[in-house]
Amino acid sequence: MFICLIWMFVLLCSSIADENSIRDVDIFPSSPEIERGSTLKLFCVLGKRYTPHRNASQIIWKLNHELIAQENYNIVNETVSSVTIHNFTYSKAHVKCFTKYLGNEQLLVHTEVKSGFPPGIPRNISCIYYFDVVLTCTWSSGRETNLKTNYTLYRKINKVPGQIKQEGRVTLLNTMGSCQSKTESCSFYYPDTPYSSSFCFQVKAENVLGEALSDCVPIPLEKIEKFQPPEILSVKKITGIKQLLTLTWKMPEKIIPAQDVTCQVHYKNLYSNSSEFVTVSLNSAEKTGSCNLTGLWDSTEYSVAIRCISDVSIFWSEWSSVKTASTEEKAPLEKVDLWRVIESSHSDGSRSVHLMWKPLNSFPPPGRILGYKIQYFPENNVALKITNNSTDNKISLLLNEEAYIISITAYNSAGNSPEAILRIPSTDEKTFQKIEAVRTFTTNEEVVVEWITSKPEVTEYVVEWYQELETDPFGRSWQYISNSTSWKTSKKNFKPFICYNISVYPLYGNKVAAPYSIQTYVQEKKPSEGPVADTGIPGKNEIIIKWKEISKDKRNGFISNYTIFYKPEDGKELNETVNSDVLQYRLKSLQANTQYTVYIMASNEAGGTSGEPKTFKTLKFNKEDIILIALPIGLSMFFLLGLWITCILKKQAFKKVCWPDIPNPAGSIAVEWPLHVSVNNSFWKGVTSEAKTMDFEDLSVLEQPFSEENHEKSLLMNCENCVSKCTDINTKGMIIGEKKILYEEENEVPKCISPSMSYIITDQDIRSQMHLALIPAKAIQPRGTLGDDVCESQQTSIKNEENYNEEVLKLEDFSENAVFNPYLKNSVKTREFLISENLPEHRKNEPNSQSAVSPPLQNNVAGQSYLTLDMFRLATAH
Predict the structure, then answer these.
(1) Which site in 57, 226, 343, 540 is 20 to 30 Å from 276, CA atoms measured?
(2) What is the mean pLDDT of the chain?
(3) Which residues form a coiled coil (predicted)?
(4) Do 210 and 199 touch, CB atoms closer than 8 A?
């Protein structure tokens, strides 16, 4: 109540104080500490900055995040608001002052409130005294206050009345010293550590809620003395005395005088977990101590420590630092465990032999081994013995092809061990397998190897094991087995997911027979990676998939099989499974011209792992399809080529067979002149003018009404006379377009042409140029008229490049009868008959059957004969 009055006075004074002396917003009291369960009252004061717009009625209060009810508010004045919180049970909480303005809450100020309890009376006071060093006391608080509590340790003389109470406070009398602490421990340091056997110790605890004082507890310093640990000077063996060690130590200097001391020695050998203790008593005058440790093991190393205590004290010193020593040695009693690894012979016949051995198996061991002596010599020549020394437990020798005997001896300061002897066979020596089968399996904690032997008399074996990828010959492990065909060892000797080679060697004497080897995994997991497929060259309906073995370090177990998964585009996935020794497989029955995705999974007992997928596309045609398509085409081309070559070589024969040389009647016109018909200039002019426009098929020949025999004779005679006469006369050709007509130069009337002579116009080249040639021939006349005709000759000049008359001039024999093709009868489209003017009138009017001339351009006259150039050739051929 008194505190509240003080706060009210402060608040009233604040209203008249200078504005610079008051903060804008303040809360009283700040960070209060109260007793738990009591009532808390806080005040919130608004400064000048808030008063024009806000007042105390707008202040609200919150405890942590909870709004305090309005009935707990109190408005002191316009700037001061208070809040009362009853039964405050929080160990720590925040009280916040807000102002509510325009519907919003604005935090003005807050404070942290703690609640706790008054301190309890300190209990369990104990002290440790290090003579002339430090005096440390500890205690436990009477209760948990949850508030900041300070402690004071008092040291006083126990014979003087200790304390009186005055006005509620404790007053200590005869105090020899004190120390302050915020924890439950406090120390007096030298020189404030005088020795006295009549001290008592008292602790006072106090906080904002009150204080408490413990009783003064008497504690004699000699009883709580704890000195520093002794120092071990030596631990050593005595030469010639086995199983004994001598220990000496020195006591610390700062010890309470006239106090007897007891020391305890702790020792144990390094090969056993058991410990031994020896107690030694010293009087106050002795500064050092010693003792003998007996009943120890030979050649065994021991660790030794020591601690001491005053005879009246309750505290042992700490253990000294540990010292080690070994007992007197004796010669090793057991031979070393020897094994070897023989490499293949070199080109010169030499070979490397790697020897390795284990520490001696005797327990306890005979002592510290100083080294090993290695001796070896050819089996058939002991005089060549060689000796080497080594401090390591392995060595490599280079031996020749002979058999060797090797012995190894371990030695220490007391002597040598028995020899371990091993025989190395010669390179050409054959050893026979005496073990028929070996199997391995694992249990929860062990690996078991069992074997079957064909020689029951063999009783000793060596089991050798090492990692398959191990290349160091000294990285192998081995163990000798006697009188058993099985071997067990802990799984800890093998690594999981690693392949091990295990070999069993039978021994007989110092000889080692051929081993039986197998591989095993003590634990498997699925492969670390899958095989990569090589698709190769696909076919139409099949493909060969190849892959390589997974590397040994990534198999993690024995591969049991491979599975090939393949899937066509937009199709169902298929698979094929093969054994572990198959590294390629032919996929059949594939769809042609289809893209596939393929991948391979390698599996062991723990699972399978797939490799990267590959894609390939089958062919549209395979080799057989291409051959079936190409073979007919090739044969056809070969046949056509042969036929073409044959046609080239036999062109004329094929032409005569397939296209016979049939005369074209449209290419020639045979014109026969009657004996008494003369040719005048008007006719030739008409022929010349008409020839310019006429078609070569519009020419006709004159029919002769006399027999065929007379016709031939007349033709022959007239032609000979005509040719002979024409050679002496210069003539020139009249060319009408592409046709040539012979005529006399003077009167443009052709000479060397009998009035009754027929003219033949031929076509020499239908494709290029058509030349109309007037070829003179003896007109076939009736009998008795040949002597009346006169042939005027004139020499003709013909162009050299146009030799179309050459064949006619070379005729030699006209005696052969002309063969007339009946086909020629109706071939010409127009027949023209030329009648000579010299013919008698009665000849002109003769019937058509004898010598009558058909009207011009009359077509298809029955019974008419024709003469062509081909017929003329036939006649001359004979």
Answers:
(1) 226
(2) 75
(3) none
(4) no
What are the contacts of 818-821 at 24+ separation with CB within 8 A?
Answer: 818/708, 818/712, 818/867, 818/871, 818/872, 818/874, 818/875, 819/871, 819/874, 820/865, 820/866, 820/871, 821/663
- DSSP 8-state secondary structure symbol assigned to residue 29: S
Task: Report the 10 Å Cβ neighbour count for 110.
Answer: 16
- CA 28, CA 42: separation in Å to the nearest integer? 6
CATH for 10: 2.60.40.10
Distance separating alpha carbons of residues 53 and 55, to the nearest angstrom: 7
CA distance 677 to 754: 9
Are 441 and 317 part of one and the same domain?
no
Low-confidence ranges of the chain (pLDDT < 70): 1-23, 49-53, 158-174, 363-364, 654, 659, 661-662, 664-878
Contact at 8 Å (CB) between 201 and 147?
no
| 527, HSE (Cβ side, Cα atoms, 13 Å) | 23
Q: How many CB atoms lie within 10 A of CB 282?
A: 19
115 Cβ contact list (under 8 Å, min separation 6): 33, 34, 35, 36, 37, 38, 88, 89, 90, 91, 92, 146
Instruction: Report yes or no on 19 lying in a domain.
Output: yes
The per-residue pLDDT for 741 is 39
- pTM (2 d.p.): 0.49
Q: Give yes or no: residues 801 and 729 share one domain.
A: yes
d(CA 156, CA 198) in angstroms, rounded, equals 8
For 645, the token pair is 């070559």
Same domain, 240 and 288: yes
SS3 percent helix, strand, coil of the chain, rounded to 5, is 15, 40, 45
Residue 661's pLDDT is 67
Domain enclosing residue 137, as ranges: 123-223
Residue 225 has, within 13 A of its CA and on its CB side, a CA count of 27
For residue range 729-744, list pLDDT tens digits in order.
Answer: 333 444 334 334 334 3
Q: Where do runs of H (alpha helix) occur along 403-460? A: none
Before 191, cis peptide (omega within 30)? yes
User: What span, in angstroms and rounded, lies between the C-alpha atoms of 843 and 782?
Assistant: 11
Count of CB atoms situated within 10 Å of the CB of 283: 10
Residue 131 is assigned to a structural domain of this protein = yes
- 226 within 8 A of 313, measured Cβ to Cβ: yes
